[in-house]
Amino acid sequence: MSSTNRSKARDSHTSDYYKTPIDQIVKFLKEFNKHEDVFIKPYIKILDCCAGGLIEKDLMSYPEALKQIGIHNVDTIDIREDSLADIKVDYLTYDCKNKYDVIITNPPFSIAEDIIKKALDDVKDNGWVIMLLRLNFFEGKSRKDFWLDNMAKYSFVHSKRMSFTDNGGTDSVAYMHCVFQKSYNPEFCKLKVI
Ligand SMILES: C[S@@+](CC[C@H](N)C(=O)[O-])C[C@H]1O[C@@H](n2cnc3c(N)ncnc32)[C@H](O)[C@@H]1O
């Protein structure tokens, strides 16, 4: 595709590319493993639908973190052509064909709700959708109906401020790994500070 024809969303600066610190993902995965046996099942099918990475620069954070807990087969999608993902498409319009056990990522903030809803469609019954979200994703009038229909099972709130940049800078935003289970819509969410 020529650079004049392709969507600007395929460029790093316009597609909301930030890399999640791998050590913080591993911290979450190890804590999550204490509560659910999701990642210890054999033949688990996992997708990172906004996988990131940057050719010759950054690894893809979630697949790398999963490797550290012994999981090596993760399908990867990203809209950017300079991402390291196997499949370069807009996930929101992509037909996954087969259902996944787990979809995990740090989605772009601007389309996070749409990504979560699609991921819930793309996982098997009782499958898991795990997203890194700002803690204030819980607030907002317009989001109330979303939470009524899709309350997360867990929120693992990161006590350490995350840095998504090479210079180690942080902003004043708290983040959580929010864990949704398909077909399970509890009235309350379990919250743990990690
Ligand atoms: C916040 S970054 C996170 C990257 C990586 N998951 C990480 O945690 O380091 C969001 C990623 O989503 C990608 N992205 C943006 N819109 C997308 C879409 N519609 N479909 C698939 N990927 C998308 C961006 O190119 C970017 O790499």
Mean pLDDT: 92
Annotated CATH topology: Rossmann fold
Looking at the structure, what is the overall shape?
globular
**Portion in strands:** 15-25%
Description:
The chain is of the alpha/beta class and 194 residues long. Helices cover 19% and strands 22% of the residues. Strands 3-2-1-4-5-7-6-8 form an 8-stranded mixed β-sheet, with helices on both faces. It has a single domain (8-193), classed as Rossmann fold, CATH 3.40.50.150. The chain has helices spanning 22-33, 61-68, 112-122, 144-149; strands at residues 46-48, 74-78, 87-88, 100-105, 123-134, 154-157, 175-181, 190-193. The chain has 4 helices and 8 strands, in the order H-E-H-E-E-E-H-E-H-E-E-E. It starts with 21 loop residues before the first helix and ends with a strand. Bound molecules: S-adenosylmethionine. S-adenosylmethionine binds next to helix 2 and strand 2.
